[in-house]
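Tokens for NAD-dependent epimerase/dehydratase domain-containing protein. Go.
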Amino acid sequence: MAHLLSTSCSVDMSSCCKLPCHQSYQGSKLFSSSCKLPTSNFPRKKLVLKGNRPERVCMVHATTLPMSQEAKTQPGSGSHQASGGSSKRKRVMVIGGDGYCGWATALHLSNKNYEVAIVDSLVRRLFDHQLGLDSLTPISSIHNRIRRWKSETGKTIQLYIGDICDFEFLAETFESFKPDAVVHFGEQRSAPYSMIDRSRAVFTQNNNVIGTLNVLFAIKEFREDCHLVKLGTMGEYGTPNIDIEEGYITITHNGRTDTLPYPKQASSFYHLSKVHDSNNIAFTCKAWGMRATDLNQGVVYGVRTDETEMHEELCNRLDYDGVFGTALNRFCVQAAVGHPLTVYGKGGQTRGYLDIRDTIQCVELAIANPAQRGEFRVFNQFTEQFSVNELASLVTKAGEKLGLNVETKSVPNPRVEAEEHYYNAKHTKLIELGLKPHLLSDSLLDSLLNFAIQFKDRVDVKQIMPSVSWKKIGAKPKTVAA
């Protein structure tokens, strides 16, 4: 994720290195102001700012576990021809690489022979601590994750711990890593989180919009030819009573025709931040000749990828709570523990969905086929459409085959949204680039349900029901968990 909450203290990394933070989350422990991390033996690069400004760390290399032999790097999809015919590995910076989509993507790109750096403030882990939440799956610290990846594959992922809303940190990171492409997952990504209270609404907008603006300026100043692959959301479009096109729509009005950005109807402060991002990126492509791809992603489900299955320390997070959990993941966990599936309102809310394996596939396709200079591409990133009722029915049938007694109940909808509506969104551009979708099947649902059953002892049933109301958003910060 991107943004730490304040800049009023220092965290001691390797005795002398400072990281701006108010409350910095490292691994599985919370460090508050004036606390120091224990001295570390991690080798790291230290970048010092000019003038009298303080030092700050922008990169930490996790040490590797002992290995008998490192895997040999072979040219793959991450390689491209440099001048003179030599093969050069593409350098990809994954902002938000400790998160759900970011972690799976970073491992996949590294496995495909891209040179990968993760940039993350680890604030997503702090959110769980603040709200009393936890992933269904146990998650290792980012350092242990990267060490384990090195141990399993022989491949190194560089790690920059810091806040992209701090432009000095981001500038140092760009100058150090020199990315050919930036994959930007580093945003507060939950609509319910953005609707808890004023402070979290402000945090979401500031973190997402300012963070993305900083990325745009960093590309302009340090890596003008760098391709930005930005995670957007299908939620930008809302639920219009016409087909949803991929980013643009051609209209005729009073006898004149033009192709314009598709109208946006965001439904939360989170979704509004994504709309602002899209507008800022489109403007900079036009004004500065930047190249950018906006991936308007649907709802993601699943947890396993080829890379995360290599070792338990590489396991991805799986959120099932009412703040960060997504519909299908939540339903599978509810079924596994015998809790009724919670359908909000009438259950006719229809959205695009995709497997986490298709998320990483789409990102790789976008990187391998970059936008042109001055081009702002928009891809609708999903593979199938389901209503909430359809998902509940699919999970019920799959659960019954596994001997689970699955019930469904309607609960008051905490959101302000249409519960019965037309929905038909186009999604052809990624297919044309070569996307081979993993469609939701009985076997995949069985796998996801069995995964939820495996970890059901970690489920806190108090976190299942929705606890954030769009209409009752508060002004004062509050803790969501009971």
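The radius of gyration is 22 Å.
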